[in-house]
Amino acid sequence: MKLIREPLFQFLLIGAVFFLGFRWVNPPKASGPERIEISQGLVDHLSTTFVRTWQRPPTDEEMRGLIREQIRDEVAYREALKLGLDRDDSIVRRRMRQKLELLSDDTAALREPAPGELERFFEANRAEYALDPEMAFVQIYLNPDKHDDVLGVADQLLDSLRSGSISEPAWPDLGDSLMLPYEMRLSPMWQIGRLFGETFADAVVDCPAEDWCGPVRSGFGFHLVRITMAKAGRVAEFGEVVDDVRRDWLVQRKKVMLDRFYDLMRARYQIVYEQEGWSDALGEP
Question: Are 243 and 139 in contact (CB under 8 A)?
Answer without folding.
Answer: no
